[in-house]
Q: What sequence folds into this?
């Protein structure tokens, strides 16, 4: 599974996800740090990546465009560091791998995770 980490998450996520066996890259390594969310989404779709973000705009883009991809994982927690959220995210990625490969929006907060299959109805 390939994961593109958005600019609003620390680059340390790339290493944490790579250690867990995922192909992960921070946006700052592959694109313009001033790129719009739409550009990041297009790049992820074109290259087969899931977007991992702390930004609600990606879910809004999926909803307004009725897109079927890319999948987006949005974190809605205060502490966004891999040390506190990494194990939980890795478990979620393994558990929901088939849905993420098909196209889904996953929202992770302190209490639970919610999954919406794409495109939104």
A:
């Amino acid at each position: 599974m390939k994961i593109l980490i958005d600019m609003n998450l620390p680059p340390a996520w790339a290493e944490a996800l790579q250690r867990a066996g995922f192909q992960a890259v921070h946006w700052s390594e592959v694109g313009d740090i001033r790129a719009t969310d739409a550009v990041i989404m297009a790049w992820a779709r074109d290259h087969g990546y899931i977007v991992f973000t702390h930004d609600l705009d990606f879910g809004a883009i999926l909803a307004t465009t009725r897109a079927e991809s890319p999948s987006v994982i949005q974190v809605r927690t205060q502490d966004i560091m891999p040390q506190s959220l990494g194990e939980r995210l890795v478990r979620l990625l393994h558990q929901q791998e088939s849905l993420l490969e098909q196209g889904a929006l996953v929202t992770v907060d302190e209490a639970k995770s919610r999954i919406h299959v794409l495109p939104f109805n």
User: Anything to note?
Assistant: The mean pLDDT is 95.
